Amino acid sequence: MNLSVKNCSLEDLELLVKVSLSTFVYAFERLNNPDDFKSHIEKAFSKSKIKDELLNPNSFFYFAYRGDKLVGYFKLNQKEAQTEPFGDKALELERIYVTDEFQNQGIGASILLEVIEMAKQKHMNYLWLGVWEHNASAMRFYERYGFKKFGSHSFYIGTDEQTDWLMKLDLV
């Protein structure tokens, strides 16, 4: 699939907030308590929060395009920007989302392959991510690309404590 990726900058802030919010809502709103979900998205996807993440020199947002259509985005974290302290030779794929219009078209797989290549070019030992314990289809997706579960961590949607499986792909 012919995808192109664009590194996001502050000029992309409005669009990044919009696509971040819309893809997260599409993926998870129906699966969570409405009050907790509303509280979470107001904090996690606020303009100021996304701006702070964009300004972090160890976090990187990318838009994915098919032709001139924005089809998704992803976020990578390295060093201290990672949500878990796995060191300088680990790269975290914190977010990977495809817009609802382009679901089930192989976009996620194409983005993941791009991310794996980026991690290799950065000479990382492994690429890791967290996937919600109730998202069996996402776990199977990552397993098809060689990711293996190696732990878990908690996160909150509002006041609801949830668990992510930590999965990694060894690159060396």
From TrEMBL:
The species this protein was found in: Geojedonia litorea
GO MF annotation terms: acyltransferase activity
PANTHER family on file: ACETYLTRANSFERASE, N-ACETYLTRANSFERASE DOMAIN-CONTAINING PROTEIN
Enzyme's top EC category: transferase
Lineage, top ranks: Bacteria, Pseudomonadati, Bacteroidota, Flavobacteriia, Flavobacteriales
Limits of the N-acetyltransferase domain: 3-172
Name the record gives this protein: GNAT family N-acetyltransferase
InterPro entries in the cross-refs: Acyl_CoA_acyltransferase, GNAT_dom, YpeA/RimI_acetyltransf
A Pfam family it matches: Acetyltransf_1
Keywords: Acyltransferase, Transferase
Ranges in coiled-coil conformation: none
Database matches in Gene3D superfamilies: 3.40.630.30
EC number, as in UniProt: 2.3.1.-
